[in-house]
Amino acid sequence: MLKQHKELSMFVRRTIETHKEAGIRPSKTYQSFVAAAGSHRELEREFDAVDFHTVIPCATKSAIEAQFYHVYTHEKFKDVQAQFKGELNCITRSTHSTLGFTTYEVIEQVSNSTFNKFVVTYDAVSRDVKCHCLLFESRGILCCHSLSVLSFKRVDNVAPKYILERWSKNIKRRHTHIKSSQDEPLLEPKSKRFDELVFRSHNICEFTSESEKLTRILHREFDKVMAEMEEYQGRSKGKILLTHE
């Protein structure tokens, strides 16, 4: 068992490096891991092990970057770190203040001759920061424009609302099924269905999160499907009651 664990851990590391160099999409990398691990639960244990033994240095001297580093998994921290690197290409200046909010203009250099302008608002009391690029609202990551404003204001830590629990390396994964030897035969079909659903939902969420419109479509269809399944479940329970009568 220990030998298999070591071999799988090495496979995870090699696959991440190889796929990254080849430019292979994360969803394909994830699929390779699942095939090797045999299930999503085993794969999650491997990712946790990689997180524990891997060290990713901070890209800047920012105390906020260190704040995310200590909390987030390495995989998610890489996404956050990309925004801190992007902050280096931003220039911030204050435009005006009103009702406790200060508005800033952030100019981001995206190429030698291309500069994009963004508007960011910041409330020093609540520590709320919002950019009209809406990266945090769509992906849960503070954008480089917001980080530039926080740096401009010499803020050394972000409000708790910007550190999302679902990406913390310190919490136990809630969707992991724990089986005992007594109920394993009964739970095995359910666990297999669960693993398949997790894999499919991972790909759907990755695709849908790229667009606000796609997200709205998914929410709408999800509500329809939930209503249909609840109706089916209600009819099934009714049939069982009639059978027992």
Rough outline: globular
* Strand numbers in spatial order across the main sheet: 1-2-3-4
- Overall strand count: 4
Main beta sheet: 4 strands, antiparallel
Q: Identify low-pLDDT runs.
A: 1-8, 174-183
**Strand residues, percent:** 5-15%
**C-alpha termini separation:** 51 Å
Taken together, the total number of domains comes to: 3
| Elements, N to C (H/E) | HHHHHEEEEHHHH
Mean pLDDT: 77
Radius of gyration: 23 Å
- Counted by DSSP, the helix tally is 9
- Can you give the helix content as a percent range? 55-70%
* Overall SS class: alpha+beta
Protein name: Protein FAR1-RELATED SEQUENCE
Organism: Arachis hypogaea (Peanut)
GO biological process, one term: regulation of DNA-templated transcription
GO molecular function: zinc ion binding
List keywords for this structure.
single chain; 245 residues; alpha+beta; 3 domains; 4-stranded antiparallel β-sheet; 9 helices; 4 strands; 58% helix; globular; disordered N terminus; zinc-finger; metal-binding; nucleus; Znf_PMZ; zinc ion binding
Question: Which helices and strands occur, and which strands form pairs?
Answer:
Layout lengths: L1 H21 L3 H12 L2 H14 L9 H9 L2 H14 L2 E9 L2 E9 L5 E9 L4 E4 L3 H5 L4 H9 L31 H25 L3 H33 L1
Antiparallel strand pairs: 1-2, 2-3, 3-4
InterPro entries: FHY3/FAR1, Znf_PMZ, Znf_SWIM
Keywords: Metal-binding, Nucleus, Zinc, Zinc-finger
Family: Belongs to the FHY3/FAR1 family.
